[in-house]
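4.2 Preliminary Data

To establish feasibility before requesting continued support, the project team ran the inverse folding procedure on a target of 173 residues. The structure was first converted into the token representation described in Section 3, and no sequence information of any kind was made available to the design step. The complete token record follows.
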């Protein structure tokens, strides 16, 4: 296992449309392992493959955020949102937007169809933080980011803050 660098906005690779996963092999298992290690080290509750520069339709989620909750890593490969019901507003963060937390509107409950790391199909109904994380990570596969859900004003403010941060990061190398 290895921790992979996480791309930060405005890296253009975060805007790519990810391709379907077609091979469920050892290389894919290694990618999932690396993503899990990267997500837990960050730490975060979700990570999509495009965030580490791999343009494949794959994300992982573990919404156990407290130490006393058992971890439950879920892998979603080639996911499709087949139902979205209700509406919630929730403050979201993203590992590709360090330090940014913004209120985003999402469906309250979702039904998702996906494959696991062995290629087996499953369906899952989710609500609460898991439903929000599924929608957030699914967006990443289409190059959609949390800023796209904000008002133009908020989007500009976040954009400026992130561009400033990227400049400071590159200056300090
Ligand atoms: Ni994200």
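Position-by-position output of the design step:
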């Amino acid at each position: 296992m290895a921790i992979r660098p996480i791309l930060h906005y405005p890296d253009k690779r975060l805007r790519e449309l990810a391709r379907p996963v077609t091979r469920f092999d050892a290389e894919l298992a290694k990618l999932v392992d690396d993503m899990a290690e990267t997500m837990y080290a960050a730490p975060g509750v979700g990570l999509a493959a495009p965030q580490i520069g791999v343009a494949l339709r794959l994300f992982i989620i573990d919404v156990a955020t407290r130490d006393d909750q058992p971890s439950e890593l879920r892998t979603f490969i080639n996911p499709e949102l087949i139902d979205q019901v209700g509406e919630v507003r929730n403050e979201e963060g993203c590992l590709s937007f360090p330090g940014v937390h913004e209120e985003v509107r999402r469906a309250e409950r979702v039904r998702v169809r996906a494959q696991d790391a062995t290629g087996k199909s499953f369906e899952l109904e989710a609500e609460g933080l898991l439903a929000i994380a599924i929608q957030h990570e699914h967006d990443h596969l289409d190059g959609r980011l949390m800023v796209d859900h904000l008002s133009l004003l908020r989007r500009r403010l976040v954009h400026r803050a992130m561009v400033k941060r990227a400049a400071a990061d590159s200056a300090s190398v």
